[in-house]
Design a protein that fits this description.
Layout (H helix, E strand, L loop, with lengths): L57 E2 L2 E2 L19 H21 L9 H7 L1 H6 L20 H4 L5 H6 L2 H9 L10 H7 L12 H9 L5 H19 L9 H4 L11 H6 L1 H7 L3 H15 L3 H13 L9 H16 L4 H8 L3 H6 L13 H8 L11 H10 L3 E4 L2 E4 L9 E3 L2 E3 L6 H16 L2 H15 L6 H13 L4 H9 L2 H5 L8 H11 L19 H16 L22 H15 L22 H12 L6 H11 L15 H9 L2 H4 L2
Antiparallel strand pairs: 1-2, 3-4, 5-6
Helix pairs in contact: 1-2, 1-29, 8-9, 13-15, 13-25, 13-26, 15-16, 16-20, 18-19, 21-22, 22-23, 25-27, 27-30, 28-30, 29-30
Length: 676
């Protein structure tokens, strides 16, 4: 149903129109959606958040949803083999996936009951790492108290890590370190002591963390430029030429349209079935797979979770692509204070968080709260409910009219405000002075020490470990403040720190990262296959192929800008433990290997290795070097051979005697592909 389209509403015509509010929600309700309890995921806008007492199943159908397949798991084979071989293949493949789930950090992670059932006693020995958590408090937070003290909710990644799995991970994470003269020096002088199945190869580690997946071209570039040269090159994306796949994004007709053009051409776009908010996501996926500006795209993904505005909300079809271009991408490697300032004047954020409704005599606190809780100091940053109220009063007057940001002085509260350690007379309704007061506040919180720590913590989680050492977070926060929120110096400090290089294999790919890495390692080409028949479809094969990837990521519950609530996606492994999601990813890898998706061109699995060895064991070794850039451990190698039902010395042809697709998929189900 990828091509279905709901005609967009025309936002911005009514000065009091609220694009985020769901039907039936009072216009000036402080929050249109419930706030989460500790260890409780956000609910959808307008829906109650689920009540849970332990980390939730997050599968293809979202939070708390049961597996979509009878018996708990989708098919692991789909190859039509006889029952005996299929059963053995299923168990071997599940064992590989189970290994992937427990090897991160050398400790048991949160395996789902379904996957533990497949693995039997071995998984039982690993332990039920989900653990249990409790909630403390209610959704009501007394004015004057700090949310972090009342503890009615907590920072998202931290809440997921409050389990036995999180404690186990922390034991295996790097404990501390120091900064070196540069990334290359840090790589050379850092000894990797953590338990991991990944090769302790600095070039591979760099490629796994700073891109969406190593490729032969990326590794060749690192070798040619050196670690320092490659990092410097990636930090200047404007000097990196667009790839052919990026140039072909012109085939997505709405990408270059301004919000005004999108409003004016609404009817024509509807007739063509164009969906601007989805084409933006399609383009993001294309860049993640094929762009050479990989670090830039990783940072765009990071900021889209940190300063999150969902792709799809009433108004998103008009404004979200502009927010992507003019806020996130504009500042992704620039200045976070400037990003936050621009965001707070952008129609997408103002509509998404109901700021268009807020006025001095009827204050809406949504944007003020998220500016503090999610976009700057964080829930532990020291603010109180009184601070939220004061910030909401100060920010009144900002809104949207005729598709553009507008300031309405008649709606602005005039009077002294105090928020954290920021004070301002705010004694004028003059638009320039009133806006200057708001901007001064936004700039202040963007450079607050708590913001520096919060940004540093999130960057360390993204690039280093789900439980990064305090030494690194403190170092990054200091660099952030010293450089007034500029991002490149912070990243250089991170990549020059021994903690980064010591953390090999300490991150598990989330569903999007797994699928994009699979496309990259298989060398999928954006050109349509020779046998593709586009029929009379109005969209090009490239546009259709991107939407197919997009739709698959929706099934997996993780696609760019897909989180409906403003907290963005969690960035820790225990938030994504789902057998259904894992197996769905493996099955998609099988689809790619079998070249069923003709909108793109795929290398046949028997062609992945040039001049493949004649014996099964050597062939598996060669295929592993091609797909995961290293040999498998003896255990994983034996499991892969079990998938084919052969021994290491068995002579096989280029098709692995007909099992090459299953063997390749098994390698892509291994820890070596799940970890980064």
């Amino acid at each position: 149903m990828a091509d279905q389209h709901v005609p967009p509403r025309r936002p911005g015509d009514d000065p009091g129109w609220d694009a985020s509010r769901q039907p039936g929600t009072p216009a000036h309700q402080p929050h249109p959606y419930p706030r989460p309890q500790p260890h409780q995921p956000h609910g959808y806008p307008g829906q109650p958040a689920p009540t849970v007492s332990r980390p939730q199943w997050i599968g293809p159908d979202g939070y708390g949803a049961p597996p979509a397949h009878p018996g708990g798991l989708p098919d692991l084979d789909g190859d039509g083999d006889g029952p005996v071989r299929r059963s053995g293949r299923r168990r071997a493949l599940a064992a590989l996936g189970g290994t992937a789930a427990v090897v991160a950090g050398g400790a048991a992670l949160a395996l789902s009951p379904q996957l533990r059932g497949l693995l039997g006693d071995e998984a039982a020995v690993a332990g039920d790492a989900t653990g249990t958590t409790t909630t403390d408090g209610t959704a009501a937070r007394p004015s004057g108290q700090r949310p972090s003290t009342v503890r009615t909710y907590t920072e998202q990644n931290e809440s997921y890590m409050g389990s036995r799995a999180g404690a186990a991970l922390k034991k295996n994470a790097p404990k501390g370190g120091r900064v070196h003269s540069g990334p290359a020096a840090a790589a050379a002088e850092t000894k990797v002591t953590v338990k991991t199945v990944l090769a302790k190869d600095p070039a591979l580690h760099l490629a796994r963390r700073l891109t969406f997946g190593p490729t032969a071209a990326v590794l060749a570039d690192i070798k040619e430029r050196g670690i320092d040269g490659w990092v410097r090159w990636q930090l200047e994306p404007e000097k990196i030429a667009p790839t052919k796949a990026e140039l072909r994004l012109a085939e997505l007709p709405t990408l270059k349209l301004t919000p005004q053009q999108l409003r004016d051409q609404r009817d024509q776009l509807n007739e063509r079935g164009a969906q601007p908010e989805r084409e933006m996501v399609d383009a993001t996926i294309a860049r993640q797979i094929w762009s050479d500006r990989q670090l830039f795209e990783v940072m765009v993904d990071f900021w889209n979770d940190f300063l999150h505005v969902a792709a799809e909300f009433d108004g998103g079809e008009v404004y979200r692509n502009s927010f992507d271009q003019d806020v996130i991408r504009k500042h992704a490697l620039g200045s976070y204070p400037e990003m936050l300032l621009d965001a707070n004047k952008h129609p997408a954020l103002l509509l998404y968080l109901n700021q268009v409704d807020s006025r001095a005599d009827a204050v809406n606190e949504n944007l003020a709260r998220e500016n503090l809780e999610l976009y700057s100091v964080g829930v532990d940053g020291g603010y109180t409910e009184a601070d939220v109220r004061q910030a909401a009063l100060l920010q009144t007057g900002r809104g949207v009219q005729d598709g553009r940001y507008v300031f309405r002085p008649e709606r602005h509260y005039v009077g002294k405000v105090k928020i954290l350690d920021f004070t301002h007379a705010n004694n004028s309704a003059d638009p320039k002075k009133a806006e200057a007061a708001i901007d001064a506040y936004i700039a202040h919180i963007a450079l607050h020490p708590s913001t520096a720590k919060y940004v540093a913590q999130n960057l360390a989680v993204r690039f280093v470990s789900d439980t990064p050492p305090k030494s690194l977070v403190d170092r990054l926060a200091k660099t952030y403040l010293t450089n007034k929120g500029r991002i490149k110096p912070v990243l250089l400090t991170l990549f020059s720190s021994s903690e980064f290089w010591a953390a090999v294999g300490q991150k598990v790919r989330r569903p999007l990262e797994y699928l994009v890495a699979t496309y990259r390692t298989l060398g999928v080409s954006p050109e349509a296959a020779p046998n593709h028949d586009n029929g009379d479809n109005q969209r090009t094969p490239y546009a259709r192929g991107l939407r197919q990837v997009h739709d698959k990521l929706r099934e997996l519950g993780h696609y760019p800008m897909g989180q409906p609530t403003p907290d963005g996606y969690p960035d820790v492994y225990v938030a994504w433990t789902s057998a259904g999601t894992m197996v769905n990813g493996w099955n998609e890898a099988n689809e790619l290997l079998a070249a069923y998706r003709t909108t793109f061109t795929f290398t046949r699995p028997e062609k992945l290795v040039t001049n493949p060895p004649a014996t099964a064991g050597a062939y598996v070794d060669a295929l592993a070097r091609r797909l995961v850039r290293q040999k498998l451990t003896d255990k994983e190698r034996a499991l892969v051979l079990d998938v084919a039902g052969v021994s290491a010395g068995t002579r096989v042809d280029a098709t692995f005697d007909g099992a090459i697709t299953a063997v390749a998929r098994a390698i892509l189900a291994s820890p070596q592909h799940h970890l980064r």
